[in-house]
């Protein structure tokens, strides 16, 4: 669970339900729906165990790992029961805070699923794993920048954390986010990490309930496991086979700063165009007014998006 470290002595919050914007029932239902999308998109079939038949799963920024029992049951049913080439599954759950010292045993023990817990900072590299499950990294540009410079530094910190976790994944990575803005950040970072990224896939639980449009600042749209991003490495071919629907986001990368920058450039260009029209009024031809302004090397005017 992505979060700002709590003050010493404060109650640690390690799940969406702990933060109070959803119930445990909604949290669990949303996680089940997310797992179903993974099954539908062929993620589990694409994974390849190592030569000993071991499938390794990294779960960074796990918080209290509230979804553990649901994940174990899913992996048992959809992987171990269906694939003879996978003999064991090793899960590594990590978080910067220690939620694990009092972790109770799973409701159902599975002799073929092993779970390890590790307290470490997200910027520390993880061991390689075929599958990465990154639930709720706290990487939203739109909402973080509203709080000024300290949160901007926090945003860049999470860019490094996302990159490190993506680099640990050798086959398929899955990230879930509370907001669409966060999913767009994940897409951008996984591409920089050499992976192919899916559209932002909305959880079926929220079809028709939330807005599939970035930078809307609609905090009511904060939902557990809201948007899913799947990323894979060559030669794995999960992402190219995904067919997004009208509830998924297939648009370009944007964050608050790039959008402001583009709007500023558009306003400047409009001002220049209007000034040019005033200067050239009464000229014999308007063709030069409507054509792009050439720069010193003869190329048309270029608008560049800053990519953070």
From TrEMBL:
<feature type="compositionally biased region" description="Low complexity">
    <location>
        <begin position="281"/>
        <end position="291"/>
    </location>
</feature>
<protein>
    <submittedName>
        <fullName>Uncharacterized protein</fullName>
    </submittedName>
</protein>
<feature type="compositionally biased region" description="Basic and acidic residues">
    <location>
        <begin position="294"/>
        <end position="308"/>
    </location>
</feature>
<feature type="region of interest" description="Disordered">
    <location>
        <begin position="276"/>
        <end position="308"/>
    </location>
</feature>
């Amino acid at each position: 669970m992505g979060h700002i470290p709590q003050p010493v002595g404060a109650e640690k919050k390690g799940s969406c339900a702990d933060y109070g914007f959803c119930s445990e029932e909604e949290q669990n239902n949303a996680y089940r729906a997310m797992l179903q999308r993974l099954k539908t998109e062929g993620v589990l079939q694409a994974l390849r165990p190592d030569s000993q038949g071991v499938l390794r799963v990294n779960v960074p920024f796990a918080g209290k790992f509230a979804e553990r029992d649901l994940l174990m049951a899913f992996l048992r049913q959809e992987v171990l029961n269906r694939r003879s080439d996978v003999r064991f599954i090793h899960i590594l759950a990590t978080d910067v805070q220690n939620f694990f010292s009092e972790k109770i045993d799973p409701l159902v023990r599975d002799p073929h699923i092993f779970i390890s817990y590790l307290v470490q900072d997200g910027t520390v590299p993880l061991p390689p794993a075929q599958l990465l499950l990154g639930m709720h990294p706290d990487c939203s540009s739109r909402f973080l920048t509203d709080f000024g410079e300290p949160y901007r530094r926090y945003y860049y910190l999470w860019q490094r954390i996302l990159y490190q976790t993506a680099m640990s994944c050798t086959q398929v990575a899955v990230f879930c986010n509370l907001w669409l803005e966060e999913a767009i950040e994940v897409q951008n970072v996984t591409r920089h990490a050499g992976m192919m990224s899916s559209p932002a896939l909305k959880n079926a639980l929220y079809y028709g309930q939330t807005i599939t449009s970035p930078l809307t600042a609609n905090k009511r749209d904060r939902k557990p496991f809201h948007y899913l991003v799947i990323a894979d490495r060559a030669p794995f071919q999960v992402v190219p086979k995904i067919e997004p629907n009208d509830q998924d986001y297939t648009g370009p990368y944007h964050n608050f700063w790039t959008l402001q920058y583009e709007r500023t450039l558009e306003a400047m260009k409009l001002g220049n165009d209007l000034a040019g029209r005033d200067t050239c009024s009464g000229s014999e031809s308007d063709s030069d007014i409507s054509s792009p302004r050439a720069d010193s090397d003869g190329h048309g005017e270029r608008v560049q998006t800053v990519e953070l």
